[in-house]
Amino acid sequence: MQRIQPAFEEASEHELRLIRGSSGKHYAQIHNGAPFDVFLSADQIRPMLLVQEGIAPKTSLITYAQGQLALWSRQGELNLNKKYLLKTDNYRVIAIANPRLAPYGQAATEVFSKLGIESLVNEKLVMGENIAQAFQFAFSGNADLGLIAYSQALSPNMRDQGSVWLVPSELHQPIKQDMVILNDSEAAAEFASFMGSEVVREILISSGYLLPVGAR
Amino acid sequence: MINAALQLDKPNFSLAADFNVPGCGVTAIFGPSGCGKTTLLRAIAGLEPHTKGSLAVNNELWLSSQECRAVQERRVGVVFQDSSLFPHLTVEENLLYGRKRLKKISEPIEIKQLISSLGIEALLQRYPAGLSGGEKQRVALGRALLAEPKLLLMDEPLSALDQSSREELMLLLETFLQLIDIPVFYVTHSSEEVARLADNLILMSDGSVLDHGPIQNVLGAVDGELSRSDTAFSVIAGQIANTQLTGLISVDCGQGIVLQVPDTAVASEIRYQPETGVRLRIRARDVSLCLEQPKRSSILNILPAVITELAAEPYKGSRVVKVDIAGKQLLSKISEYSVQQLQLHAGQAVFAQIKSAALIS
Amino acid sequence: MLSQPDIAALLITLRLAATTTAILLLLGTPLAWWLATTRSRARSAIEAVIALPLVLPPTVLGFYLLLAFSPDGPIGATTAALGLPSMAFSFWGLVLGSAIYSLPFVVQPLQNAFSGLGRMPLEVAATLGAGPLDRFISVVLPLSKMGYLTAAVLGFAHTLGEFGVVMMIGGNIPGETQVLSIAIYDHVEALEYSQAHWLAAGLLICSFVVLLMIYSANRKFHLMKTV
Predict the structure, then answer these.
(1) Interface contact flag, C131 B127, Cβ < 8 Å
(2) Pairing assessment for the beta strands A62-67 and B13-21 based on DSSP bridges
(3) Is B97 found in the same domain as B58?
(4) If we measure between CA atoms, which residue out of B311, B313, B314 comes closest to residue B346?
(5) How large is the average pLDDT for residues C145-159?
(6) Which strands sit side by side in the sheet containing B258-262, from one edge to the other?
(7) Which of A34-43, B100-109, B144-153, C144-153 has the lowest mean pLDDT?
(8) Do B110 and B248 belong together in one domain?
(9) CB-CB: which of B71, B87, B88 is closest to C126?
(10) Position A90 pLDDT exceeds 70
(11) How far is C112 from chain B (nearest CA, A)?
(12) C positions 185-224 inside 8 Å of B (CB)
């Protein structure tokens, strides 16, 4: 979003104010009448709930990006791959986001079960409240590995550090991220259509996301 | 003997106290407020850790350049100005606090007897919060004594009390301090307390000792610091004679000297039985001298006397003169002008007019 | 109702608060005593350091602890050299974090209690033959009862409600580092509001009962003294 904001403001006469926070908290705030124009969630559940509750129009619900899961270690020059992850003797502690709260955490557990190492990994698991915290655990070295967002590994500060392996998308359900418009302002509509523009597509791809497969 | 040569430097004050006093009896440490009396007492107790010099109490070395005995090893009993009782302990627990910590109990003090002579039997189960000021001080005294101290230190123990409990405790102290056989240091700025209690006197001013020794020597020195001050006084012992005059008490001081003092006490019948030993405190400025016996004077006590000594020099316009009245020494403070006018000199026979005298016990 | 992990979180929380409080009372006593009696110039600096958790967001402490616990951080390197397990994501790591974070809540009441005593009771005890340790046990401790009570209640309560530090260094491991405040947060985030209610109410009642017990014990103590 840090890269989308200036691009939008350049293309539009509207200013964009970003309020960052966890999807759950924002959902609760919107549910209780917070005056946001657009809600970009990290998952699909909360925008869907807002539509069901009649707070957001169904027509405004779109998938704006698809996240990718990556295995990351602060140690450089590790040959991270499926085999490395499978051989659980390789690491003591692996950090993921809380699967109950974050889609990346959910995807991580899917990877473990697909690989059949669920029970082996279980006692090595530490959970961040969100994907940012999971990355913090891995980045500080307290966790040997982290199953984190590929976008985090590609962020400007991290790009040249550690070792990374992009987890193949067939190992987990797609991590679709949805957005809804919360009022009928012109600016909100303009921003929503901007999110489908070529500029944003390029930003998303270079930031480590996949493009949404067929908008709903 | 108690030999002391103590130095203590504090940010705004320094103490330099050298003195030797007998290792028994009551030694009053006397001087105006702020002169370092309490600091001296604390230094003796060991409560001022930066004290230097030497201190020996009855052949025990408490402080020297080589060693400094810790407070808890000195075995000093201290009665502080205001309540020092432990609020979380009952009176009985307070009384036994020090005694329980004795390594061996050498003197089988009759605890019950001590408690009853202090009049605190009824208080044993109470907490200090419920006691009067006088009761608290009596408990503090009992607690100090039960720990079998080698030296008892009292820091103005009456100053926080009201007039009636002060008098009550004073009476108790007069008999009590004579009975115990350990030395007592008693800090006070009241000349009355000195006159009533002290056997020895340490006179202090501005952190140093001006004079020390047996009370009569210090009090009677015409050139002494005490004599120069406004509080100069003499103490004469006597006993109550049969009172015949209303409102007056006659005190027989021996050798045919009988002084009349006003009966200010409310319960005089109880306190002043004939032949009770008493002391009279006579301020030097209340004694004037005449060459001839005045007639028809309002002053009751006019006695023939002989001048024994004059202060070498006048001080602030007046001079201290010591007279002998049938073997009793009395200080008189008169103006230098009168000394010159009357051409007073040692050996001269005069009449001493005593304007007032306070019966102090 | 409370699920199995929720009950585990409750027990972990109580254990964490009790352990932290006990350690803090033990270590806080000499520290508070030193602060109450010293004339050293270092005192102000030490006081400021102890009070830091009052002003800093807990995440600051959590962040630095996380870095310190890492294999090349000072604490992580030490534990590794001693052959001990890493402090990160462990119960004892949480104890350390909570202890630092609750330190002022324990030290300050103790320091106030000690300063309030004045020198008189200690000097009297010394003249009555009591040595330093004896003086502390027979005079300072009983006279500082209220200070200890306040310190214990505040230390316990503050650890009970601790969230930021635990979140940063805990790793949310059930039965080890998943404490109540984190469990409540997770329930709220996951929109499981009724479970959140159960836990929050449980924490509320638990805190209330602890405080009630302490204050009524204290009242009895006071009544006994005035009779």
Answers:
(1) no
(2) unpaired
(3) yes
(4) B311
(5) 89
(6) B258-262, B248-252, B233-240, B277-283, B358-359
(7) B100-109
(8) no
(9) B71
(10) yes
(11) 18
(12) none
Instruction: Please report which helix (H) or strand (E) contains residue B303, including its range.
Output: strand B301-310
Position C105 scores a pLDDT of 94
Domain with residue C99: its CATH number is: 1.10.3720.10
Asked if C142 has any chain B CB less than 8 Å from its own CB, the reply is yes
Chain A residues with beta carbon closer than 8 angstroms to that of C191: 24, 27-28, 49
Pick the last residue of a domain from B193, B220, B247: B220
Question: Which chains touch C (3+ CB pairs under 8 A)?
Answer: A, B
Tell me: do B170 and B261 sit in the same domain.
Answer: no
- Write down the pLDDT at residue A215: 45
CA-wise closest residue to A67 among A155, A177, A153, A164? A177
As for how many domains chain B has, the answer is 2
> What's the total number of domains in chain C?
1
**C-alpha span between C69 and B280 (Å, rounded):** 82
Joined tokens for residue A158: 């991290």
Q: Which of A49, A135, A142, A144 to probe the C interface (max C CBs under 10 A)?
A: A142
CATH homologous superfamily of A69-166: Periplasmic binding protein-like II (3.40.190.10)
Per-residue pLDDT of chain B in tens (361 residues, 90 and over written 9):
899 999 999 888 899 999 998 888 899 999 888 889 999 999 999 999 899 999 999 988 999 988 899 999 999 999 998 878 999 999 999 999 999 998 877 666 678 888 888 889 999 999 999 899 999 999 999 999 999 899 999 999 998 888 888 888 888 888 888 778 899 999 998 888 888 888 899 989 888 898 888 887 888 887 777 777 777 888 888 888 876 677 788 888 888 888 888 776 544 444 567 777 778 888 888 999 999 888 888 888 899 999 998 888 888 888 999 999 988 889 999 999 999 999 999 999 999 999 888 777 6
- Residue the block writes with tokens 């009636």: B164
| Minimal-distance CA residue of chain C relative to B79 | C124
Q: Which of C6, C79, C89 to mutate to test the interface with A (most CBs of A within 10 A)?
A: C89
Does a structural domain hold residue B197?
Answer: yes
In the prediction, which pLDDT does B268 show? Answer: 45
Q: Which residue segment(s) compose the domain that C139 sits in?
A: 4-226
The angle at the Cα of B80, spanning B76 to B81, to the nearest 5 degrees, equals 155
CB B117 within 8 A of CB B180: no
Closest by Cβ to A101, choosing from C70, C168, C186: C186
CA distance C198 to B346: 103
Say if A4-66+175-206 and A69-166 have the same CATH topology: yes
Chain C residues whose CB is inside 8 A of the B75 CB are 129
- Choosing among C169, C185, C191, which should be mutated to test the A contact, i.e. which has the most A CBs within 10 A? C191
Q: Is B111 a domain residue? A: yes
- Domain ranges in chain A? 4-66+175-206, 69-166
Residues B238, B186 within the same domain: no
Residue B227 falls inside a structural domain: no
Give the domain-ending residue among B196, B220, B244: B220
Residue B248, domain CATH: 2.40.50.100
- Which residues in chain A are closer than 8 Å to C171, comparing Cβ atoms? 93, 95, 126-128, 137, 143
Candidate from C76, C88, C171 with C-beta closest to A127: C171
Q: Which helix (DSSP H) or strand (DSSP E) does residue B16 occupy?
A: strand B13-21
Of C124, C129, C142, the CB nearest to B88: C142
Distance CA C139, CA C121 (A): 7
Mean pLDDT, rounded, of chain C: 88
Regarding whether B206 and B104 lie in a shared domain, the answer is yes
Check CB contact under 8 Å for B71 and C142: no
| CATH 3.60.10.10 correct for A4-66+175-206 | no
Burial of C191 by CB count in 10 Å (0-12 exposed, 13-18 middle, 19+ buried)?
middle
What is the extent of the structural domain holding B73?
Answer: 2-220
In eight-state DSSP terms, residue A1 is -
B86 and B122 share a domain?
yes
